[in-house]
Prior knowledge:
Layout: H1 4-19, E1 23-31, E2 37-47, E3 50-59, E4 63-68, H2 70-80, E5 85-92, E6 96-101, E7 107-112, H3 121-128
Antiparallel strand pairs: 1-2, 1-5, 2-3, 3-4, 5-6, 6-7
Amino acid sequence: MPNSPTFTLFFNRVKASIADGTFAKLTLAKTIGNTQLMNIYTRTIVVDNELLFNLKFKFQQEEIIENHSIDEAFTILTTYINNPFLSALLFTTEADVTLKLNKKRIANITEQSPTFKNSDPVLKDYLAQ
Length: 129
């Protein structure tokens, strides 16, 4: 993958936000062309006392929901970056972090003020245990 260090840096930020309890959600957006798959929304979920990612694949006509370990989810999500998505948005209580591919498919990471004031409630409860 041509932008592997940038992807690794971005997903390390995701893991750090989970570890420190600031993670709110992760979204893949901005498709290339008119595709059936429009977005992938990611939140945390706890199953059998294990923290997982709940992936919601939003298609034009339906939604498919899958639960995966954090590492499995990163592997799955990475395959959708650049095909068909040009951006991944990490929402935390500290900052909104965006991984964006330009027209030449070079990835860069930007930060903005946080959109969310509260972290993912499932994560908050899980970390409180």
